[in-house]
Amino acid sequence: MIIGVLNQKGGVGKTTLSLNLAAAYATSGYRVLLVDADPQGSSLRWSSARAEDVKPLFPVVGMAKPSIRRELPELAKDYDVVVIDGAPRVTDLGRAAIMASDVILMPVQPSPFDIWATEDTVQLIREAQQFKPSLKAAFAINRKIANTAIGRDVVDAFTEAAFPVLDSQVCQRVVYAESAVQGLSVVEAAPTSEAAREIKALAESVIKFNKPERKAA
Ligand SMILES: Nc1ncnc2c1ncn2[C@@H]1O[C@H](COP(=O)(O)OP(=O)(O)O)[C@@H](O)[C@H]1O
Ligand SMILES: [Mg+2]
């Protein structure tokens, strides 16, 4: 399964969700590869921040080039799950990452502005679905304030959204940044935390949404 974490908007949590999802899958026994497809290289920076003596859970490779579409399928054969940390902006790079994916996960903050701002990415996905009808896409709510309900206007905006919204929501929590500075994921830095629980739930939701064959134990 190749999961493209994409959204043309910067700062929505593409990198945060990508590396934490990758870690959740790796700790469940899947063979995981994290592909950094953003020229900014945040996932690569994250992996190099990891202490020398802390074993990596999965390899991180940089592939911020349009040839990702041709090159990734070959590389992906050796893994159960490949997560693409996508680039912001709608470019050839974004298009190539979409075409390389089986399922697109679009992180969005629970605000109508964030939902509306996905329009160009949604359009790209729709175009890609013409060539690749099996391509699936869903929104994942990120940075929800814990113990608050999502407002009616936001719910309405999501109801009208182009793709389904996954049930599992990720809240705003300091542990995401605190673990990232050490090159760690929340499932490693705080395995019993609410953050780890919500990331594992999101990882399960993506699997259910895509319904792939379960290869690893
Ligand atoms: N659920 C969250 N809780 C707290 N901070 C978050 C969360 N998700 C993302 N952030 C923070 O928001 C900023 C942008 O996130 P990032 O993953 O880099 O977004 P993107 O890759 O889409 O640009 C980072 O500082 C990150 O630590
Ligand atoms: Mg990023």
TrEMBL record:
Residues 4-185 form the CobQ/CobB/MinD/ParA nucleotide binding domain. NCBIfam families: ParA_partition. This is Chromosome partitioning protein. It comes from the Bacteria. It comes from Aureimonas phyllosphaerae. Pfam families: CbiA.
